[in-house]
Amino acid sequence: MIAGMKELQLKYGCNPNQKPARVYMENGDLPISVLNGRPGYINLLDALNGWQLVRELKAAAGLPAATSFKHVSPAGAAVGRPLSDTLRKVYCIDDGVELSPLACAYARARGADRMSSFGDFIALSDTCDKATALLIKKEVSDGIIAPGYDDDALEILKAKKKGGYCVLQIDPSYEPEALERKQVFGITFEQGHNFVRIDDACLQNIVTQNKTLSPEDRDNLLISLIILKYTQSNSVCYVKDGQAIGIGAGQQSRIHCTRLAGDKADKWWLRQSPQVLSLPFRDDIKRPDRDNTIDVYTSDDYDDVLAEGVWQQFFTRKPEVFTREARKEWIAKNSGVAVGSDAFFPFGDNIERAHRSGVCAVAQPGGSIRDDNVIEVCNKYGMVMAFTGVRLFHH
Fold first, then answer.
1. In the β-sheet with 359-364, what is the strand arrangement from edge to edge?
2. pTM over 0.90
3. Set 58, 70, 160, 240: catalytic member
4. For this structure, is 394 an active site residue?
5. Which of 131, 169, 210, 328 is deepest in the core (most CB within 10 A)?
């Protein structure tokens, strides 16, 4: 790493008209070094939030972790569990490609919401290896942060974006000061850094009739809560098999967060349906165009890609319509999903919506005057719900 760098000049701030722009340390040296490219203001916000997220995911799950960040919220995050053959196909992993645990984590993080991950900033909990770099090579991405890079992985990444791909290395031993500050409209805000630890203690207060929290539910709920800790509020996160499958961020209404995240979870599940897996795509269609086509095909706007004179741009033959009824029937087959919320669920309608996306386990702070109603709806569906007592707002 480059030692002794206290300041890094940036091209501009959030927008091109916001100049000058820099990041700097009031005490000590920056914990990051630039190995390639030139990071922007938002790149660094994504990088530093993403690094904290994957560091905590690894600590909670004991597996390598990755996240795909866009505009200061994760589009996806996951730990490095092996991929099924179906997920390899959904995540665009070529046959015969060997994946390390870290590469599996990135494939899952990127695959959660490929539309939102377009042009992402990646964070990895472990040294980037060649297998992970080869996956990143094929995706549209702005940059990456990791605690280290294998030599061959670094060369692969440096070649992206005609040599301009942003590669950052972070000191994994770095810890922030206890107080953090930022300015808004010339006024300085100060608060204690959010050092709250997301662990098993957060899941001890189970308030539903169903008191059985399986190891899988435990992992998924902790992963959900850690993701929420670094997601712009209000936020709700659905997790299955160690990865986010739907994140709703930055909504003023909690039910809108729940719906947004649930709709994304449903899209993730629909992409695994036989009807989507068998879509006859043209060989020359690019990945982003394929992702966009699947997104439209699995919606009520399917005619935008199936109309005569249009479908020929994407498919070798015209696919059958994926009707609303058929989609609903497939979505009903999803199960084993956990959901977390960064603040209390104020109404039972959030649980009703989560149930339709296969949710069986819930973690939320509790504390609403309508907690009884939320518990009642969970009991109706046999869900297990823990009150964490911890709010996770992030701005």
1. 32-36, 166-170, 141-146, 120-124, 65-70, 73-79, 243-249, 235-240, 337-341, 359-364, 384-387
2. yes
3. 70
4. no
5. 169
